[in-house]
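To whoever is on call:

I kicked off a structure prediction for a single chain this morning and the downstream step that reads the tokens threw a length-mismatch warning. I double-checked the sequence; it's 276 residues and nothing unusual in it as far as I can see. Pasting both halves so you can look.
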Amino acid sequence: MRNQVLLVFVLAMPAIGFSQSKVIEGKIVADSLDGSLINIVNTSLGRGTTSDKFGYFTISASVNDIILFSSIQYKKKEILIDSSVYKKGFLIVELQLNVNQLDEVILPSLSGNLALDIKSFPVNDKYALNAPMSRQGSLSHEEKLLYTATTGPGGTRFKWYGLLFGSVPLDPVINGISGRTKMLKKLNKNIREEKELETELDLRKSFLLEKCHLTEEQVYLFINYCFAQPGYLELLKDPDKLKLLEYYKKASTEFLGLLAKENIETKSDSNNLKNP
């Protein structure tokens, strides 16, 4: 009985030894490897490492563990750690370059006339193709300042229920108390109105000069005058632009009347100063 137990123990010794993890050293061999770092993962143990810039690596492994080698520029490769590799404690891994085969590009017949050839090329609308991209333009410098002032880390904003859970971003609170947020909102509003003013001036300048009988010097003052009038911003957003043009005709008459009155008063004040 004792001899049988001893025999079983002796036979089990190699299996016990091989089931233990030990450090396996290795070298990766591949084209254009110089400076590339290869990801190395023991998928059986869930542990990983990377090679150095010369391709050398070390990783813990047991018999029958699977080691995965991966990188963007090389094909993935899995290696089983058998008893032979485990005994040697050294592994040489050859990786193959991952070549991406591009689809063949067929060009239409070209005439040599650039203007005609451009018209023959198909044009794809990125929005019609539902391409994953934002339709919103990039933020201006002033809009970025306002966004930063009203958000906390990760873009979090102040919410009243955040008080219940203790998650209140401090930056929006501090900027609100100090008046910085109010100042930035006013700045952004002024800039938006300035852009709207310049756009409207470019669109209606010829109409204001010809139909409203304004001079070059008066056009900019007139648009500013309109922006200060109640209901003007609503007219700008109204799709019926005839209403806006009719408004310009009426408002320009009032505007020219105010300018004439102001000129008369200015001349009268000047005469009074000359003849006290």
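Update from on-call: the warning came from a stale cache, not from the record. Cleared it. Sanity check on the structure: The chain is about 50% helix and 15% strand.
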